[in-house]
Structures are given as structure tokens and as C-alpha cells.
Amino acid sequence: MPTAEILSQGDEVITGQITDTNAAWLAERLTELGFGIGQHTTVGDVLPHIERAIREAIDRAELVICTGGLGPTDDDLTARAVAQVLAAPLALDAQALAHIQALYERYGRAMPKINEKQAWLPKGCIRLDNDWGTAPGFALRTPRGLAAFLPGVPREMKAMFEARVLPLLVGELQAASSRLLTLRTTGIGESDLQERIGRFEQPNVVLSTRTRLPENHLKLRFSPQVSAERAAQIARGLAAKVGSPVFCIEGLDPIAGDLEHVVVHHLIERGQTIATAESCTGGQLAAAFTRVPGSSAVFFEGLVCYSNAAKERLAGVPAALIREHGAVSAPVARALAHGARERAKSTFALSTTGVAGPGGGTPDKPVGTVFIALSTPAGEHVRRLRLGGDRHRIQALSTGAALDLLRRHLQGVLTPP
């Protein structure tokens, strides 16, 4: 397995002013291509530090991908560092300069003189044209393999990697994509997942996990030697062990993606509709539905019933019910969902009401107590949640739990409370 290293540059990255999403994206993409990731390095805008980082990386790895430092300002030092390390003096690349000038002309502007710096590239490099910004990238052969240098802007970096670097990897390093299948789960923690899976040992298969609230992902990466049929068999077997928390297998199921995407497309398939009535989530559930393209076919309306008066006025919750049980209760959650469905004339409705914190909790209903409800033509289903974490986490988990309640109903795996 060839090794790869990722080098990120910029004072704004090393000081934490921006999050280095480039390294995470590149690591995942390179792993898919069969590279072992040896190291991530972050370095500030100091020329000797950049030179040392590049020199050490190309000594260790067959592939080095470096992002950042290709701009027009004095602190953009990547090309100078590469020229020193690889003894490749900078020279003006006429085609690169014409490309930058054409980009400015496209927007009716003259190119500032300072941008000419971006067209000075190391001698003998492979120019990587940037159709998404002004900074061209470049690649050079190293004693161990290849080093590619890309802009730090994530949108530009990702596009250039796919369009410019990937063909080089296939041609020069014989990169071959591994097969990836992802079991997306929700409503189950990592430790419980591990217990259900038990010991996992399959030749030419790597199992890893990733958490993206409110989901946990099981990622199965298969080497090219594993057939598609065998990969599907292994993924289905693992899904059977985990059970109902698996809501799709990405790369295998026709309806796959994040939880809201799966729910919306199941509704579309069935010609069914949904409305929401939210208290503690404050509209996040409605936002989850409307993030999905095509949701206008199934999402009717969303009520944010934050105050007791709003619960009564917008969803028809009886004032006596709130007085007797409190706003955070199973009866009020049930009435919210029922009222939203009746008013919207939708097939289903979901509701949330709870204590998101940091204040407002009581001994009977501490912070993290949330009730969710699903109203269907046959009646209502209510669940009490006991969630931990800060306000943001409690709201995110409540939103995910409500979506999952509907998902389980649609997939026929809704169990009694």
C-alpha cells in the first residue's frame, strides 16, 4: 500500500482561526484510493518551516498533497519553498498567466499586477490549471513518487483534486479505488454498536466508525480484490447484526443518504405527507425536511409552538392539558402532533417538546428530558428521551430522534415504547 502525507499551510489554520477541513476530506478520499495515510502536518507562513515540512514529507511518502500558500500576497510562500527544496527555480508560466488574466476579464476586471506572482511556478513542474479560482496548482515528481500543491480554498481544492490530481495518481502511482459501503445508523451509541457487531474479521476489509450527530456510521472499505457480490453480502450481514438502527446502506440501497434524505424519499415513494409542531427544537425539524431537494412534494408546514399560548393557538393543545401535565409531557407532545396533522391535513405529523437547557430543569424533568410524538391516521406514538450534553446537542439529538420515529414507522420497524 503506497503511503500519502497531507500538508496544510497558513497562519489562519495553525492558529485555529479556521478549521482544516481540507486535510479531513483529502484523507478520506486518498484512503478510498488505496493509500495509507502516514501523517498530517500543519505549518504556518514561515518559509524555513514550510521548507522543512515539505522536505520531510517527500522523504517519507510516495504521495504528498499540500494545500494553501498559492495566493498572490507576501505570506503565500509555497512555490518559493518548493523551488528551494527540489532545486526547481521559479519561472513565469505564460499559459498560467493567460489563464489568470482570462478569469479576471470574464468578470469585467483588469488583473492586479500582484496576481502575476501566482504564475511563477517551479521549473519542470506539471501545471494544474484552476478553473475555479485564480491560483494554479502544480505537481512535481519526487524521488519516491509525486507531490501535488493545491489552493487552500476548499471548493477549489476539491475540484482540482478530482479533475487534475486524480488522473496523475491513476497514471503515475497506479491508484485504484477501493469499494466503500457505509451503514448509516441512528439512535444507538458507539459502544452499543460495538457490542452488537462483536469481533469483525474479514480479509481485505477495513471497518471504521464515524459519528455525525444524530448518526453513527459504520464504514466498510473493501480492497479491489473483493467482488461487489461479496461486499454486499458482508454489508448485509453486518446490518443484520446491528438491526433496526441501520436505516440505509450507502453504496448499496436505492434510497440512501442522511436520515432526513431517506425519510423524505420514503414519503415521496408512498405519496405521503408530513407536518411538524416544535417547541424545544425551534424549527430545526422543519429545516431538516426542507434541506432535502424535492421535499416540497411531501412537507406541508411547520409550526414553532415555543410558548404555551402558541401551543394552544397554533396546534390546538387544550390549556387544561398543559396545566395538568406541563408543557414538557407525553400528553402535550401527543396533542401537538395530532393538532399539527389535523390542521395541515397531512398524512403524518411530528412534534417535539422538552428541556434543552442549560436552565429550566426540575427533579422530575431534568435538562435533556424531551418528548417526541408521531401522529398517524391510526393514532399517535410518543417517546420520552433522556439526553445529555449542551443545548445544541440536545436539540440535534431530539431532531434526529423525531425523524427516526417516522423512519421506523415507514420501514415497519417501529417497536412499542
Descriptive account of the structure:
The protein has three domains: 3-172, MoaB/Mog-like domain (Molybdenum Cofactor Biosythetic Enzyme, Chain A); 179-250, Alpha-Beta Plaits (2-Layer Sandwich), CATH 3.30.70.2860; 259-411, CinA-like (Maf protein), CATH 3.90.950.20. Helices cover 39% and strands 24% of the residues. The chain has 14 helices and 17 strands. The chain has helices at residues 11-14, 21-32, 47-60, 78-85, 94-106, 154-172, 190-197, 228-242, 259-270, 284-290, 308-315, 319-325, 330-344, 391-411; strands spanning 3-9, 36-43, 63-67, 90-92, 120-122, 126-128, 137-141, 146-150, 179-186, 205-212, 215-222, 246-250, 274-278, 299-304, 348-354, 369-376, 379-386. The strands form four sheets. Strands 2-1-3-8-7-6 form a six-stranded mixed sheet, with helices on both faces. The mean pLDDT is 95. It is an alpha/beta fold and 417 residues long.
Tags for this model:
alpha/beta; single chain; Alpha-Beta Plaits; Molybdenum Cofactor Biosythetic Enzyme, Chain A; 5-stranded mixed beta sheet; 417 residues
CATH architecture group name of the largest domain: 3-Layer(aba) Sandwich
* Major beta sheet summary: 6 strands, mixed
Number of domains: 3
User: What's the rounded overall pLDDT mean?
Assistant: 95
| CATH superfamily annotation of the largest domain | MoaB/Mog-like domain
Number of helices: 14
